[in-house]
Amino acid sequence: MSLSTSPGLTAAFGAFAAGFSDAPAAALAVAKMGIIDGLGVMLAARHEPVVQSARAVLMEGMMPGQGASVLLSNERARAIDAAFINATATHAFAMDDVASGCHPSAMLMPALIAQGQVQGASGAEVLRAYVVGYELLAELAAREPDPLHSTGWHPSGQLGPVAVAGAVCNLMRLPADISTMAIGIAASMTGGLFANFGTQTKPLHAGRISSSGLLAARLAQQGVNASRDALEREAGLLRTISPNKRADISGSFTRSATDLRILTNGLCIKKYPVCYSLHRIADAAIDIAGLPGFDATQVRQIDIALGKTQAWMADKHEPHSAQEAKYCVEFAVAAGLVARAAGFAQLEPDFIEQPLVRQLLKAARISVRDDVSPDDTAFCSADRVVVHLHDGRVFDSGEVPFARGHARLPLSEAELKVKFLDCVASSGRDDGAVLFARLQGFESLVSVALL
């Protein structure tokens, strides 16, 4: 006998995935931005050891010319495996976008393009399916009032498989009953430990999420069944992962083309390849470094104030590798003060180990705030950096509520293009401008296999 207090939620997700067919142009534009940005950061990481390891394992025994594209190359793999490899690469530099406390494009884009390539889906169909996945992700996140990170699990890994499964079901045009089964299957494919943040395993979270969602849809298509209330029953996904068992499991779910969360919440595009919890303090440090009279060599003390959960997520305090530096509060500020940047160049060993950077790491003092941002429960309302020099002068960033690239402080089209071109160039490819121009017409692609 079902213990569900909302017997329709899982089924409502399935019905939405099956029935959504008409996204407004503005919603599709956000989806396209996420896909283009995701492809750029995917290419940037194509030579990373973890990506090549995933590629070696998952492509073993593959025959040439079959399946979906791997890293936008001529190599092919099964769609499920291509999604894993490509999602791993998209998340490898921690430079992929953020919404609802998760990484929507790193999860959705690889699965949708892989499935889209093998079934011959159009660019417009992929964008529509992305909107579906985003809405399901946002709905799941909105039902949890407490920071999911506090459980020790990766929120993307907890919520992402369901969102990806719904998106793929929409792309495959699976009926509502089968889509409901896919949602239920995906609810059992959650995971991803916070303990592995700052290691090569974290990007594998995105790989598993993307491939699991695609796998769930494929299994449901083959007749595998699941609980019809896997999301909302007392022992279902939402209450099981809820830190204080306060997740809202009441009611059902509806969403029309006029009230889409992708339009109200948008995407937060990352400027820097570090944990998103550090972007506001990186911006604050960069702003301070540009003030008249500032001299990083004269710093006596750095006071850094940020949210409790943000500091908990970035728990590496003496980084000696790029993976550790990405999750270090002190390093994000030191990089900003020394280089007025927090990019790929600052993650090189020579920069991490330079004496001035090490000196600033020791000069940092961290305090945490308990208040919560209305935009994301993992963040406090604003971060702040105050730098004290030996001569007594003080440089104060003031309150920083949004990182550059946040949906409320978006990057310009020119800045988005610069990021994409830098990512592609860093991968060793010289066709960034051509690829970017082609992706601008993504919605007009007759088939994403043309990518």
Describe this structure in words.
By secondary structure, this protein is an alpha+beta fold. It folds into two domains: 256 residues, 2-methylcitrate dehydratase PrpD, CATH 1.10.4100; 121 residues, 60s Ribosomal Protein L30, Chain: A, CATH 3.30.1330.120. It is built from 19 helices and six strands. The strands form two sheets. A four-stranded mixed beta sheet has the order 4-3-5-6. A hairpin with a 6-residue loop joins β1 and β2.
Attribute tags:
2-methylcitrate dehydratase PrpD, 19 helices, four-stranded mixed β-sheet, 6 strands, 2 domains, 451 residues, alpha+beta, 60s Ribosomal Protein L30, Chain: A, two-stranded antiparallel sheet
Quick summary of this structure?
By secondary structure, this protein is an alpha+beta fold.
Query: Biggest β-sheet, characterized?
Result: 4 strands, mixed
CATH topology of the largest domain: 2-methylcitrate dehydratase PrpD
Q: Tell me the span between the first and last alpha carbons.
A: 48 Å
Extract low-pLDDT stretches: 1-7
Q: What CATH architecture of the largest domain would you give?
A: Orthogonal Bundle
Strand-pairing-aware structural class: alpha+beta
Strand content: 5-15%
Q: Can you count the helices?
A: 19
